[in-house]
Specification:
- The protein has 941 residues and is an alpha/beta fold.
- It has seven domains: 6-98, Orthogonal Bundle (Arc Repressor Mutant, subunit A); 111-289, P-loop containing nucleotide triphosphate hydrolases (Rossmann fold, 3-Layer(aba) Sandwich); 292-456, no CATH class; 467-576, PTS-regulatory domain, PRD, CATH 1.10.1790; 579-695, Rossmann fold (3-Layer(aba) Sandwich); 708-808, Rossmann fold; 820-937.
- The chain is built from 42 helices and 23 strands.
- α29 links the parallel β18 (636-643) and β19 (663-666).
- α1 crosses α4 (45-57) and α14 (296-314) crosses α16 (336-354).
Length: 941
């Protein structure tokens, strides 16, 4: 006869009775009291209490204080919560504490407690935010810093809600959000939005307008991407911070008042992207952690929250396989929470499509994930939060129900304005009515899903790391072996792989070797069918297995071969889809679309789109259209723009900054050029640089004439420098022009010095052997090429003109530095004047000083004035080093206070970089130079 102990009898009762519990039962306060158990089991109540306390000490049950005291089965609670609780004994004040305070009335609840990680990874940041809100009388202005996608806007919203919660703000206080990037290329319009304007303040200001500062009165003004504010905007903001007063654009007096707490957000380093005077006026800087820096529990809870929102949106439970959970979590580290949100919406939409005939739930398994998300599983083991830690929070599968949905922001701009699931359902119904089979419907709508999500989310910058970055993660030996393996795979598959293969394989190999050392095995689920799907990749993986065993003298398990097969096929699948996309943009109502139609009819549906530009459309609108199109069609290798006018080449940097996508532009477009671009992009697998270089000199498919063909082969480009002789000064001029040229372009351009004595003969010889792009010097040689005078080169716009000349000759430019002329001439002169300071080192500091001075004073200095100013200040620094500064003998009262402020701000550069401080007298002399020669200050170019 088996005798069951009393403690086991009580515990078994709790376990069995708990099996029917749902999370809503726990939320409703269900549990087991000592009296209830004693009655059902016919055991004396005091004995039940004794055994319950023993079970609590053994960490088998959880205790909830109250009347009566209730007990719950620990394992069942962990099953319902979908994560493991900390080691016990666990005693909670009430059910709200057990459930993470989920059911407290939102009005009474501290808003910050809704943030995942509020009591762990975000605790310090929230304390800073609370201090900022509570500081009397109206709070402290705050800057929130962090990379894209970490939740800066959400955090600012929580600060606003907390201010209302603690009654620092009225319940109806305004929260005004403004993204400074929307108007960064139009400072006047940007400042008009923030401060308002009066009628007639600028062209188009037909009526007076209130600004955001007025609308935010009594509340919070949130300036997102605050680093986009121009210097004058920052100055107006910090004057407003100091005084609470401001003026509208067009007004001279600052007599308007507003009480506003300013919260800014930036992805940039404040020290380098904002004026120091502005940063000093923002005492609280909150640096939010990236997703990679968050704990494994935070990552899991963030994913669960985002999945719950999708479950609510589609009103179905979502079941996610364990391997898929890990892949989704770790695939988003480079794009943070924003990227995870985008990835989850993509996989949920695909899962919804695959489960469209199953009305009960959406299922997401590892095999159905896109390649770039699958790769998250490869890299996760290399990070500090590895798969083993993530596994603590779920079993083989996690299930998310629609009921846990929460709204954190009333109007979330990061949410799509469309219901993707409704789009999928409607289109599937239409296609089914037309007789399409399930396989066709899935293929058709999968394309639709990608288009809709890409139209809303900007594509993330390619996350593949360069060799230098890889070596921070793996050692040299591992990376070299990975490169050998890449050569093997490329030879077997007869194709090239990009850096992503090295990244994925070297990280996986490094993690595998660590698992071997620590005798830890990694469990894989539901991926064996990859052997049948990818036989070629599987055979390659067997060869890799032999190479690993030979090199490291270890046994590689068969499961590792399966995983290598998956890695190779996933990287290959993703790379197969990468190519350069092409945009054709021409003036006229249908010119571009006509060319693109020809290309598509002849070559098939390549990745090429058109933008027609009617003549009455503004350049700003054209730029906006191109940016939208670049985001839409980028396939991972950048976008080539074919245009009819060279002015569009100036858009390159703006488009790349706005989109994070590489862009190149070629002008003088023809139908033949469009055909050649599409052919090479789609069929020859070229990257954007190779494609650009192959097309920049393309002149059509017809044969060149013998003369033009020979000239292209034989003639090199050259710039002539002319001085009174062919020696001395002319050679110095050659050196200066040569330095300008190599700063502008990587293509070879000869710089040839000649004197005026034999100029006719020298020119005749040069014209026969070179393509002369320009001449620079003391006289105009009257040849068929632009001339830049020596005075213009040194004191005017000569450097800019040289760059324009090179660009007009279809030579690719890649400017590295500004003002080579100023730098070269100043360094030569300082070599004569300075004894103790190194001219080569001090020149960069003087250049930065001049740039800061231009910025804070909102001026453009001519080259001549820059040289004069930098020579004077260089000598002033030398005087400070030898302790022999000048004494100012002028009238200090004549110094303009604004000019004095500008110079003092700029002079901080010397203290920070050289540890040299200019005394007031030396600063007065600099101010005098600025005030005495205003005609030299403004660059008349």
């Amino acid at each position: 006869m088996i005798v069951i102990r009393r403690i086991d009898k009580i515990y078994n009762y709790i376990v069995e009775e708990s099996k029917v519990f749902l999370l809503k039962d726990i939320e409703a306060g269900k549990g087991f009291s000592a009296g209830h158990i004693a009655k059902d089991l016919s055991i004396m109540r005091n004995n039940v209490s004794l055994e319950l306390n023993n079970l609590l000490r053994e960490d088998k049950i959880i205790k909830i204080k109250g009347r009566p005291v209730l007990f719950l089965d620990r394992k069942n609670i962990e099953r319902l919560l979908e994560y493991k609780l900390q080691s016990g004994p666990l005693v909670f004040e009430d059910f709200h504490e057990l459930l993470g305070d989920e059911k407290v009335d939102e009005v009474e609840k501290n808003p910050f407690d809704s943030l995942i990680g509020y009591n762990t990874s975000l605790r310090t940041h929230i304390e800073q935010a609370k201090a900022a809100v509570l500081y009397p009388p109206h709070g402290l202005n705050t800057l929130i810093v962090g990379p894209t996608g970490v939740g800066k806007t959400l955090f600012a919203n929580m600060m606003y809600k907390y201010a209302i919660y603690v009654k620092r703000l009225e319940a109806n206080a305004p929260f005004v959000l403004f993204n400074c990037a929307d108007y960064y290329n139009n400072p006047q319009l940007l400042l008009s939005h923030i401060f308002g304007h009066i009628k007639g303040a600028f062209t188009g200001a037909d009526v007076e307008k209130e600004g955001l500062v007025a609308k935010a009165n009594g509340g919070i003004l949130f300036l997102d991407e605050i680093h986009r504010l121009p210097p004058e905007g920052q100055e107006m903001i910090f004057y407003f911070i100091d005084t609470g007063s401001y003026n509208k654009l067009g007004e001279t007096e600052r007599n308007r008042k507003s009480t506003v707490l300013i919260i800014g957000a930036t992805t940039e380093n404040p020290a380098s992207s904002l004026l120091k005077t502005f940063v000093r006026r923002i005492p609280i800087v909150i640096s939010l952690p990236s997703l990679e820096e968050r704990s494994g529990k935070d990552k899991f809870n963030i994913m669960k929250f985002l999945l719950t929102n999708e479950a609510h949106r589609v009103n179905k439970p979502i079941k996610v396989e364990a391997e898929a959970v890990k892949a989704i979590i770790e695939s988003a580290s480079y794009g943070n929470i924003g990227q995870m949100k985008s990835n989850i919406q993509l996989v949920c939409a695909t899962g919804f499509l695959n489960s469209i005939n199953n009305k009960d739930f959406i299922e997401i398994d590892f095999k159905s994930l896109p390649s770039d998300i699958k790769n998250g599983l490869f890299s996760s083991s290399s990070k500090k939060i590895d798969m083993e830690e993530l596994s603590k929070y779920f079993d083989d599968q996690m299930v998310v129900l629609p009921q846990g949905y929460k709204v954190l922001i009333d109007e979330d701009s990061s949410e799509p304005t469309f219901n993707l699931y409704k789009i999928i359902e409607d289109k599937a119904a239409i296609l089914k009515d037309e007789g399409a089979d399930d396989e066709y419907i899935k293929k058709f709508i999968t394309t639709d899903i990608n288009i809709h999500l890409k139209s809303f989310y900007k594509k993330s910058i390619n996350s593949a790391h360069g060799r230098e970055k890889m070596l921070k993660l793996v050692n040299e030996d591992t990376l070299q072996f990975a490169e050998e393996i890449r050569d093997l795979v490329e030879a077997e598959l007869k194709r090239k792989f990009n850096e992503r293969f090295l990244y994925a394989f070297s990280l996986h190999l490094s993690a595998f070797l660590k698992r071997i050392d620590s005798r830890r095995s990694l469990q894989y689920t539901n991926i064996k069918n990859i052997i049948n799907d990818k036989p070629q990749e599987f055979n390659i993986s067997l060869k890799i297995k032999d190479l690993i065993q030979e090199k490291y003298n270890i046994i590689v398990p068969d499961m590792e071969v399966i995983y290598l097969t998956l890695l190779i096929s996933s990287v290959q699948e993703e790379q197969n889809n990468e190519r350069v996309a092409v945009i054709v943009t021409l003036h006229g109502s249908s010119s571009a679309s006509s060319m693109v139609n020809v290309a598509k009819n002849l070559l098939g549906e390549g990745v090429v789109e058109s933008i027609d530009m009617p003549l009455d459309v503004s350049p700003k609108r054209v730029l906006k259209d191109i940016i939208e199109k670049v985001n839409e069609i980028d396939m991972g290798r950048g976008v080539l723009i074919l245009a009819d006018m060279g002015s569009l080449t100036s858009f390159d940097s703006i488009i790349m900054e706005k989109t994070g996508i590489r862009v190149k532009t070629i002008d003088m477009v023809s139908t033949a050029l469009v055909l050649e671009a599409v052919r090479k992009a789609n069929m020859l697998d070229m990257d954007i640089d190779t494609l650009y270089d192959s097309l920049k000199d393309f002149r059509g498919y017809g044969l060149y004439s013998k003369e033009s063909k020979d000239s292209l082969v034989q003639r090199s480009a050259a710039i002539i420098t002319i001085c009174s002789t062919g020696e001395g000064t002319a050679k110095k001029l050659k050196e200066l022009v040569h330095n300008i040229v190599i700063n502008i372009t990587r293509d070879e351009i000869n710089v040839i010095p000649i004197g005026i004595m034999n100029i006719k003969e020298d020119l005749e010889n040069l014209l026969n052997n070179y393509t002369i792009l320009a001449s620079v010097g003391v006289m105009d040689p009257k040849i068929d090429a632009p001339f830049i005078s020596l005075e213009n080169l040194i004191g005017g716009d000569g450097e800019k003109r040289l760059m324009n000349i090179i660009q007009k000759n279809n030579i690719p430019t890649d400017r590295k530095e500004e003002n080579i002329v100023v730098k070269e001439l100043c360094e030569d002169s300082l070599n004569e004047f300075l004894t103790y300071l190194n001219p080569h080192k001090v020149i960069s500091v003087l250049t930065n000083f001049t740039s800061v001075l231009e910025k804070v004073a909102a001026m453009n200095f001519s080259n001549a004035f820059k040289i004069k100013l930098m020579l004077h200040v260089g000598c002033a620094l030398e005087r400070m080093v030898i302790n022999a500064p000048l004494t100012y003998n002028g009238d200090e009262s004549t110094i303009n206070p604004d000019v004095l402020k500008y110079v003092e701000n700029a002079a901080n550069e010397f203290k920070e970089t050289l540890n040299i401080s200019l005394i007031d007298d030396e600063i007065y002399y600099i101010c005098e130079i600025l005030q005495e020669e205003p005609n030299d200050i403004l660059d008349k170019v």
